[in-house]
């Protein structure tokens, strides 16, 4: 998305505005938010966006700033509109704290329904020691320029139907994992892509939570079609990402019992493994 | 451990007795347990044992029987003796339910201290469809007979010092990942072993939770020494294990910022990938 417009800054972007929850006066740890329809996929809000919403509320509630490990259980489908985040400080340590948060929306009968629940360990990425000993290597994938933008190629949509979230992302799939979009899935269960935000905002620890659930489902590369609802998603944030688009690499090795795992690696422009993720999802029937 | 004694049965074994929590009359979802010193490593109870204790309490509390995905955050070190498990049913669905549980122990001042908290999705492994499409292959490792038993080789102890848990396990390390015990770690960050229970009980979904945190730390194979405390551990149980010892394969690719991940695969005797795990742990200083 080459654009003449100014790039949005961290703290002043679509993502930041749409994840901002407002502390409710007189109720410590409780936040109100209007969930934005801009992060819809078909008929529900994206799970990575919701994880970022709760991750940001926990940043406010806890003494530490950065999610180091966060796990979400998705209970019911979230819809755009008003929602309440209730947080609990489980433990406050010197270098790390643990928190829990839930998102609620009101149903037609006026009852609060829990949408998702997360538990997370927070710390300060900048305060961690500098040691790095890694045997992980960046995923082999096509360059940004040679990848397939969902904006330029209408056929490459994560799902049949409308996906508003694509307007918020600068998502470019590695052609090697985009064959499913033209009826030729590789069968390997892989999905790789470059991921920026459409308004040019660089990534931070919170947008890594979005990135962990922003690519099309690996099930599509297995030749399956349809909805792949996430049951549980865990993200480890291992480093603050450098500016520039991320490389996100997902793989599924084991589809069994109607369930599949999606293992994710997120690499930044400095070739650092900045996050690892794994989710358990229900496999599409198709 | 060839033994002439009868093999313990699932439901009547050391593991079953030591994970049995008793419902507290008049307090639905609350259970009392006397945590057994038999699962100690050095100065704390093993994290896999504690996960199994909470996993079993959730089995009692929830309408579904088997943990499909369970995440624990370890807050403070658990000690042998009385403890209370408090469970919450978060959501009950037709095929899956979600629960949360915490373990508490009383400190010297008589205050309840939370030891660990878990959130989990339960289902019924036997009710899942039979489809299996997997590209995962069992870990390359030495046979059971050619692996190094912690009972036969005193040098091969997960940590310097006493580890009562080794008397409860039939743990045989692949010699390729046991060099650290004689001062020759491979540096690859791997740990592989065969894992049975010492009394001959076969594995089930609950003992997979124990198995996910029963091998020596991968950090030892990186040449590091000392305690590697688990901050968070997630286990996906993908199938009920067949009888016989498990193969457990752990790997660490990324040590950074004083933290490391341990990725685990657990394979059963029928060559099925029965569980996947990942933990975030604090790296030893050594």
From TrEMBL, chains A, B:
Residue span(s) of domain Acyl-CoA thioesterase-like N-terminal HotDog: 37-117
Pfam family for this entry, one: 4HBT_3C
Ranges for domain Acyl-CoA thioesterase-like C-terminal: 159-281
InterPro entries xrefs: ACOT8-like_C (IPR049450), Acyl-CoA_hotdog (IPR042171), HotDog_dom_sf (IPR029069), Sec_Metab_Biosynth-Assoc (IPR052389), TesB_ACOT8-like_N (IPR049449)
Protein name: Thioesterase family protein
Classification of source organism: Bacteria, Bacillati, Actinomycetota, Actinomycetes, Kitasatosporales
């Amino acid at each position: 998305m080459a654009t003449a417009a100014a790039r949005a800054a961290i703290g002043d972007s679509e993502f930041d505005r749409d994840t901002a929850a407002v502390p409710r006066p007189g109720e410590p740890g409780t936040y109100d938010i209007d969930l934005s329809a801009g992060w819809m996929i078909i008929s529900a809000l994206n799970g990575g966006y919701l994880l970022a919403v709760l991750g940001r509320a926990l940043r406010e509630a806890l003494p530490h700033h950065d999610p180091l490990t966060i796990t979400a259980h998705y209970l019911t489908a979230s819809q755009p509109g008003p929602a309440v985040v209730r947080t609990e400080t489980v433990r406050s340590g010197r270098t790390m704290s643990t928190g829990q948060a839930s998102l609620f929306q009101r149903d037609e009968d006026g009852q609060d329904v829990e949408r998702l629940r997360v538990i997370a360990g927070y710390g300060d990425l900048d305060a961690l020691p500098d040691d790095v000993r890694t045997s992980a290597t960046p995923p082999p994938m096509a360059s940004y320029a040679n990848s397939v933008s969902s904006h330029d190629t209408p056929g490459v949509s994560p799902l049949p139907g409308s996906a508003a979230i694509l307007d918020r992302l600068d998502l470019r799939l590695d052609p090697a994992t985009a064959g499913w979009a033209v009826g030729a899935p590789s069968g390997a269960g892989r999905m790789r892509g470059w991921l920026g935000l459409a308004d040019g905002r660089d990534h931070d620890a919170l947008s890594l939570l979005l990135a962990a659930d922003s690519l099309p489902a690996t099930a599509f590369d297995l030749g399956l079609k349809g909805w792949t609802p996430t049951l549980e998603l865990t993200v480890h944030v291992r480093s603050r990402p450098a500016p520039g688009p991320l490389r996100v690499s997902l793989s599924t090795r084991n589809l069994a019992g109607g369930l599949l795992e999606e293992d994710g690696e997120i690499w930044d422009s400095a070739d650092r493994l900045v996050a690892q993720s794994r989710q358990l999802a229900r496999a599409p029937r198709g």
